[in-house]
Amino acid sequence: MESRREFLQTVAATTAGIALTDGVAQAGPPTLPGAPAVHPPEPEEGRLKQFWNETVKDLVTLPTPQLTPAEVERHLIYCGLLSSLVVHYWNGNKRGKDGEYPWRPKQQVSNKQYQGGDYLGHNIACLAVDAEGEVIDFDFNHNEVFSSSVEHAESRLIRRIFSLTQINNGWATKGIMAPAAPTTYSNLLSDVTVYTSLESCSQCSGIMALGSVKEVVYLHRDPGQNSIGNILRQLSPEKSSFKAPLPIPADVLGFNAFTELGTAYERFAKEVGKTPFFKPTVGKPDTSNSITSFLCTDLALDIFKQAKQDFDNLQTVKYADHVPSTDDGKPVPNALTNQRVLEHARAFFAYGSTEGKRGTPHQM
Predict the structure, then answer these.
(1) Which residues, at least 6 apart from 55, have a Cβ–Cβ distance to it below 8 Å?
(2) Which domains does the chain carry?
(3) CA distances (Å), 310 to each of 52, 81, 305, in order?
């Protein structure tokens, strides 16, 4: 009879899917009878079946959006607005106010003291724009404020918009005026574009899909997210109440900061092992190539500052009278022209940089 110790070893190994031979663990398939396969069966229909035997490259590749120059101009105004909000609320003290940040000399105010005060969350922001061209609201990543890894900018923004649809706040929201067509929470955001400073994670992509967001324009690619937004879009049924938003990388708009941020991040990731992101007074230096660390550096700040400067310098637009069209080619009712969009974006920045408080109702 085996000992109690041998019995417990066998149970533990079997539960973990490891076979025991003469009391020695051997790698192999689960030994529990009737254990399921580690992969799902091939679907009989649907989008997943269409990609079942295709390459990963096919799954993540989306066609380039077909946009007119006037539509591109409109997108770029909102990209400039978002960059301005990122710069205004910039805070790079990811590891606290004390210590040394070799990648942030321009943000240093005294010996090993850096501007920004207490760290409020990563420099990741997003804003939502409705079909008429009005900004609904904006938000920032607030992981640090709430001691949570799920308080990302996009997920906070979508939840915030839904919470504002039945109340009147200080800035216009989509639900205040009665819509022309019947609207429920399932299609409330179906004509909304989200602009985000960093490519969305799986959580935020999923929440935007559940919110039926139309599209998401991102200013910087996040290689750690494995193009999850593209995958969700590809696998969404064509006719679905919760189709994942169309991801639009801002480089297809000619937004210079997109390529510059990518190049700067590659440099940071390559060199941070030799030049740490952070050197504490006591303890081990931080040499992680985390993209949220990169978004605290002078490299990233300078790029966003230039995008803000371009936005500040934009006084007139080339396609001043352009208004968006509906799917059937008709002008969107009550839509702002591109010139009005520029004026509106400046007005929103005035609000967002004073009363907005990083998009959170809490005092910062």
Answers:
(1) none
(2) 68-359 (3.40.140.10)
(3) 45, 10, 9
Token pair 């609207």 is found at 183
pLDDT, tens digit, 9 for 90 and up, residues 115-172: 888 898 899 999 999 999 999 999 999 888 888 888 999 999 999 888 876 554 455 5
pTM for the predicted model, two decimal places? 0.86
Other C-beta atoms closer than 10 Å to the C-beta of 264 total 19
How far is the C-alpha of 23 from the C-alpha of 27, rounded, in Å? 13
Q: What are phi and psi of 352, to 5 degrees?
A: -65, -30
State the CB neighbour count (10 A cutoff) for residue 143: 19
**Rg of the chain taking only CA atoms, in angstroms:** 24
35 Cα distance to chain centroid: 38
Q: Which of 50, 73, 101, 8 is nearest to 237 (CA)?
A: 50
Residues in contact with 302: Cβ distance below 8 Å, sequence separation at least 6, in sequence order: 106
